[in-house]
Design brief:
There is one protein chain. With 290 residues, this protein is α/β, with parallel strands linked by helices. The protein has three domains: 123 residues, 3-Layer(aba) Sandwich (D-Maltodextrin-Binding Protein, domain 2); 86 residues, Periplasmic binding protein-like II (D-Maltodextrin-Binding Protein, domain 2), CATH 3.40.190.10; 67 residues, Alpha-Beta Plaits (2-Layer Sandwich), CATH 3.30.70. The chain is built from eight helices and 16 strands. The strands form four sheets. A five-stranded mixed beta sheet has the order 4-1-5-12-6, sandwiched between helices. Helix 1 packs across helix 6. The longest helix is centred in the C-terminal third of the chain and has 20 residues. The chain is globular. The two termini are 29 Å apart. 32% of the residues are buried.
C-alpha cells in the first residue's frame, strides 16, 4: 500500500504524543535536527508540524492524517474528518481551555467591558468571533508568544490557552470567561478516508491510541474469595462491566478479576481483606478496548 503520511504535533504536545504512541505500540524516534521522525511501522511516514497548522495541511492532502487541537481546526475553518477525540495534554488528561484573562486589579469584569480595549492572543479568529457574538468592538493583536506578560502595558486583556491556570496566576491574571474548551483530535483528509486501505490503517491507529487513554488511571485487580463471602465481596467491587468470577479447583473458592480506578485501590483493598478476600494482586493496564 501507499505509505500513510502522519503529522505529529511539534511543540508542547510533542513528548506527550510520542509517549502515547509508544504505549499504543508505535516506537517513534525524533532527532533534534530533523522534522521527519522515524517510526517502527513500514506503512507510516511521519512529519513534525506545529499543531496550529496541522489541520490546513491535512485538509489539503499534504498529510493524510495528524493530531491537533479542536481549537485549531475551528480557528483555521478546516474541512477534515475527525477520526477520534484523544483527551491528553502536556501536563495531564484534562481538556484545555481558551480563556479571557485580565490583570487582577483590572476594571474589566465581563466581555462588554472590552469595548475599545486591546486584546493580545494567538487565536485571533476565535477572539474576533467572540467579540462579534457579544457585540463588542475591540482591537485584537496577534501575539507571538509570552502572551501572559502583555497586560497591562501592551494589552488590556489576553485570550490564552491553559491547562491548569498556573501560568496565568503566576502573572497576576484572573480568568473572566471561557471562549473554547478543546481536546486533541486525530484528523484525516477526506479523500484519504475514501481509500479503503488507508482508512483501515487510520482507524486501527485511532483504536490503539484510544485504548491507551481508556486505560489511563485504571488498574486490574485479582483476588480469591470463599463462596460464603462472594456476595459481600462483589458488593464492594466496581467494574467497567462486571467482575469476572471463575470457580477454582476447590468448590468452595472463586477467583475474581476486575478493573478499577487507581484512586480506589487504597480504600478498596483493606475493605476486601476485611471480607476475607485473599491472594489480592494489583496489576497495571496498558490498554483497554471496549
Amino acid at each position: 500500500m501507499t505509505k500513510l503520511m502522519l503529522g505529529l504535533p511539534k511543540g508542547s504536545l510533542e513528548q506527550a504524543t510520542t509517549d502515547l504512541f509508544a504505549k499504543a505500540g508505535y516506537k517513534i524516534q525524533i532527532s533534534s535536527r530533523s522534522y521527519y521522525p522515524t517510526i517502527d511501522d513500514p506503512e507510516i511516514d511521519c512529519m513534525l508540524i506545529r499543531a496550529q497548522e496541522m489541520s490546513k495541511y491535512v485538509e489539503e492532502g499534504i498529510l493524510d492524517c495528524g493530531l491537533t487541537g479542536f481549537d485549531w481546526i475551528q480557528e483555521n475553518g478546516s474541512d477534515v474528518v475527525e477520526v477520534a477525540e484523544l483527551v491528553y495534554g502536556k501536563v495531564g488528561t484534562k481538556p484545555l481551555r481558551w480563556v479571557l484573562a485580565v490583570p487582577a486589579d483590572s476594571p474589566i469584569k465581563c466581555a462588554k467591558d472590552l469595548e475599545g480595549k486591546r486584546i493580545a492572543t494567538e487565536a485571533v479568529g476565535m477572539t474576533r468571533r467572540y467579540l462579534e457574538k457579544n457585540g463588542v468592538n475591540a482591537k485584537v493583536d496577534f501575539s507571538w508568544g509570552a502572551t501572559e506578560v502583555k497586560p497591562p502595558k501592551f494589552a488590556d486583556a489576553i485570550v490564552e490557552i491553559t491547562e491548569t491556570g498556573s501560568s496565568l496566576r503566576a502573572n497576576n491574571l484572573v480568568i473572566i470567561d471561557t471562549l473554547c474548551v478543546t481536546t486533541t483530535r486525530f484528523i484525516a483528509n477526506k479523500k484519504t478516508m475514501q481509500d479503503p486501505a488507508k482508512k483501515d490503517k487510520i482507524e486501527k491507529i485511532a483504536m490503539m491510541l484510544q485504548s491507551v487513554l481508556t486505560a489511563h488511571g485504571k488498574v486490574g485487580l485479582k483476588l480469591n474469595v470463599k463462596k460464603a463471602d462472594l456476595d459481600s465481596v462483589l458488593a464492594l467491587l466496581p467494574a467497567l462491566q462486571r467482575p469476572t468470577v471463575s470457580p477454582l479447583s476447590d468448590a468452595d473458592w472463586f477467583a475474581l478479576d476486575t478493573i478499577i480506578s487507581e484512586e480506589q485501590v487504597r480504600d478498596l483493598i483493606p475493605a476486601l481483606k476485611k471480607c476475607n478476600a485473599s491472594g489480592i494482586v494489583e496489576y497495571p493496564l496498558n490498554k483497554i478496548i471496549d
